[in-house]
Write a structure and sequence with these properties.
With 217 residues, this protein is an all-alpha fold. It has helices at 2-17, 23-26, 31-52, 56-72, 98-117, 123-144, 154-172, 181-198, 210-215, and strands at residues 79-81, 91-93.
Length: 217
């Protein structure tokens, strides 16, 4: 199942790159390529664990590598949202030293969260489909209000994640005939992490539900 998801992701990115609607997103922007590489790293790490049972430290190292790849190609947080206005603010500006570390840690946390809930038929794919839909609608609203730039990859990544899950769920509904495995769960975790990084992690304006959608996944 994870392999089918990854192939579907590559196909969706390839189609989007040829559409005029997404021209600004792919023109002179390293982030889509970085996303593809990071997704590939995450998929390989999960696939190896499915096949040969990779040790937890090695698996975390692979997740860190995927996060580092994202950062290297520009997919990085600029701000960290604080729930409940902790420390008297809802937004912490991340400097050049902290942004790569926080971004990579966020990727590790999100991928492990999805991997850990992948224990029941339809659970992980269902949750990612719901969260991805919410993130897409929120990002689209920000775009319509002129608060999200056209080259931001968040809406596209979120809606691709939703499509992958909806395509997979009929085969994973209890009793599931196909399992996504770690290759699918870790990969979906990455796809869910990226929109939160490039929306909530890059906006410092006061907008309703901005902090909520940063932590909701």
């Amino acid at each position: 199942g994870g392999a089918a998801m990854f192939v579907g992701f590559l196909a969706a990115i390839a189609v989007a790159s040829r559409m005029d609607q997404f021209h600004e997103m792919f023109a002179d922007n390293s982030e889509p390529f970085g996303l593809i590489l990071a997704a590939g790293v995450m998929f390989v790490v999960g696939a190896l664990d499915d096949l040969i049972d990779v040790s937890p430290p090695a698996k975390v190292a692979g997740q860190v590598l995927a996060g580092v790849v994202l950062v290297m190609f520009g997919v990085s947080m600029f701000y960290f949202r604080m729930p409940f206005d902790l420390f008297g603010t809802d937004t912490v500006v991340l400097g050049a030293d902290w942004a790569p570390l926080v971004t990579t840690a966020w990727v590790v946390v999100m991928t492990n969260a999805i991997n850990l809930i992948d224990g029941l038929d339809g659970l992980a794919a269902g949750i990612v489909a719901i969260a991805g839909t919410a993130l897409f609608l929120f990002a689209d609203q920000l775009f319509d209000d002129g608060l999200l730039e056209g080259n931001n990859i968040a809406p596209l990544v979120a809606v691709i994640a939703v499509g992958l899950c909806l395509g997979f769920l009929p085969f994973n509904w209890s009793p599931g005939s196909i399992m996504m495995g770690d290759s699918g769960a870790l990969f979906l975790g990455l796809l869910l992490a990226v929109p939160t990084i490039t929306v909530g992690g890059r906006t410092d304006f006061d907008y309703s539900a901005n902090t909520y959608f940063f932590f909701a996944p």
